Amino acid sequence: MLIPLTIAAVAGYFLGAIPFGYLVARAYGINIFEHGSKSPGATNVKRVLGKKAGNTVFALDAVKGAIAAGWPLWICSVLVLHATHSDGSPAPESSADGARIFTDVEASYFAVVGLLFAVLGHSFSCFTRFKGGKGVATSAGGFIVLMPVVTLIALGVWLVTFFASRYVSLASILAAAAIPIGAVLLHQPKLLVGLAVLIGAFVIVLHRPNIGRLLNGTENKFVKKPAAAPSENP
Fold first, then answer.
1. Average pLDDT of the chain to the nearest whole number
2. Lowest-pLDDT choice from 61-65, 90-94, 180-184
3. Three-state secondary structure call for residue 110
4. Binning pLDDT at 50, 70 and 90, where does residue 94 land?
5. Between 42 and which of 49, 58, 100, 208 could a Cys-Cys bridge form, CB atoms 3.0 to 4.6 Å apart?
6. pLDDT at 28 over 80
């Protein structure tokens, strides 16, 4: 399993390292590392460039996580279908040459490693001198593939917290905590629970400056910019 795990890790890292926040901002003529919180995450892009740009970055970052977690599962399912008959019995050619087919458990390991390294790549991108975002969108994209119900619960936590407080950071922190809690309560496999704990803790640790500002009462709320008042004709 070492070679497939290494492939999943390397592919996941470089996929996650694609700096969509930086690239989208560059398309607007902005170096996002010099504006706002200087983070290439979707929240900062949205603050600096508006809703359309921010939502685009969030979607692209989420897709990175979904692909990193999803492609190993897809490849393994294709291999299994190729090596079995419609009734599930081994195909003669696969049993004759001793072809090795990955089990569902092994496929899950590849998916978990892929997502874990995608989040690391997003937060420490080799393309931006190992600077990056906090991994919320990339994690969400991967978890929606691996644990859709748990992810929807975390999304609900995020939405309730955000609209009640207008703090994106607080919403992200509580959603990160909700993922492992939801995984345990819904009796997810231990492998996925462990992944949820690791990524949840990682996201929370990256929010340490935000936690400090929340405790000090200096964290910025996400407030919509008021629309410009219409000019009156003389």
1. 88
2. 90-94
3. helix
4. very low
5. 58
6. yes
Instruction: Assess whether 136 and 214 both reside in one domain.
Output: no
Q: What are phi and psi of 142, to 5 degrees?
A: -70, -40
The model carries a pTM of 0.86
User: Which has the closest alpha carbon to 206: 137, 114, 126, 112?
Assistant: 137
Position 234 scores a pLDDT of: 42
Give residues with Cβ within 8 angstroms of 173, minimum separation 6: 203, 204, 207, 210, 211
Distance CA(152)–CA(36), nearest Å, equals: 29
Model pLDDT, residue 186: 97
Counted domains in the chain: 2
- Regarding whether 159 and 72 lie in a shared domain, the answer is no
- Structure-token pair, residue 139: 């994690």
User: Are 7 and 113 in the same domain?
Assistant: yes
How many Cα neighbours within 13 Å face the side chain of 99?
15
Are residues 7 and 123 both part of a single domain?
A: yes
Tokens of 138: 């990339």
Q: Are 116 and 167 in the same domain?
A: no
Provide the residue range defining the domain that includes 212.
Answer: 147-224
Res. 83: pLDDT tops 60: no
DSSP string, 122-154: HHTBGGGTTB---SHHHHHHHHHHH-HHHHHHH
192 and 80 share one domain: no
